[in-house]
Amino acid sequence: MLAPSNRRPFVNNTILAGLTLQDLAAIGASLEPTVLKQRMILQEPKKRVEHVYFIESGLVSLRIVAAGSVLENAMVGYRGAIGASFLLGGHIPTHQSVVLLPGSALRIHVDELRRVINERPQIRAVLSQYVQALALHCAQTCLCGIRHNRERRLACWLCLACDTADSHVIPVTHDYLSAMLGLRRAGVTETLIRFEEQGLIRKMRGVLHVDDRKRLEQRACSCYSIVAGAYTSPEQAIQLDRRAEAYF
């Protein structure tokens, strides 16, 4: 996605910041500030989407829920939106979207957003760029779970979480990481202890603090650079999409 513009200090969301002032004014009248509370469910699978949430701060987990099991596919923060994929694709959502890190969002009813993007095609184009990046994120997460080892996957997740939340403090437990990544809890604990001994992170009650982001990124699998790059620009997303295809 496009980088936030310093001409728009009143919006932190990258999608909205990438709009022209005219397009932002067109959509801005219908945006409603919303507080995101921890564990708040923004979207349920197989239920009609009522609102699209442009995340301003915080972190939202996108999860597949089936037969009593849960697996995280992606994380959404200030660079993204919840519900935009449904709006552009017209399909019933398959993900559950749950707030992991409290924050705020600007939400708009789907009918109103549909009217605005029909009148202003450039808004649809910017949203489409984001949806493409999110789709790559979800697909790469699935591939990562099959191809890469526990240490690299955990390092990748932590780096992406820091990027998405724009924070080095992530409120997660060993149980959460085990469940969302489909890893044994004992293995998660062992890896995090090793990361802490190496000075990469600090474990505190209910949170992880990333102390050496650069070295942690070096431990991450190649999925980190592919996913992170997908949100930077359309051109780089296409290049990274081709790199991702090489893994299949």
How would you describe what is shown here?
With 248 residues, the chain is an alpha+beta fold. The chain folds into two domains: 14-144, Jelly Rolls (Sandwich), CATH 2.60.120.10; 149-220, Arc Repressor Mutant, subunit A (Orthogonal Bundle), CATH 1.10.10.10. Helices cover 48% and strands 23% of the residues. Strand 8 and strand 9 (207-210) form a beta hairpin. Helix 6 (150-165) runs parallel beside helix 10 (223-230). The chain is globular, with a radius of gyration of 18 Å. The model is unreliable at 1-9 and 234-248 (pLDDT under 50).
Question: What portion of residues belong to β-strands?
Answer: 15-25%
Return the CATH class of the largest domain: Mainly Beta
Helical residue percent band: 40-55%
How does CATH name the architecture of the largest domain?
Sandwich
Pairing-aware structural class of the strands and helices? alpha+beta
What would the average pLDDT be, to the nearest integer? 86
**Strand count, sense and closure of the main sheet?**
6 strands, antiparallel
Break the fold down into its secondary structure elements and pairings:
Layout: H1 14-17, H2 21-28, E1 32-36, E2 41-43, E3 51-66, E4 69-76, E5 81-82, H3 84-89, E6 96-109, H4 110-119, H5 121-147, H6 150-165, E7 169-170, H7 174-181, H8 185-197, E8 201-204, E9 207-210, H9 213-219, H10 223-230, H11 234-245
Antiparallel strand pairs: 1-6, 2-6, 3-4, 3-5, 3-6, 7-9, 8-9
Helix pairs in contact: 4-5, 5-10, 5-11, 6-9, 6-10, 7-8, 10-11
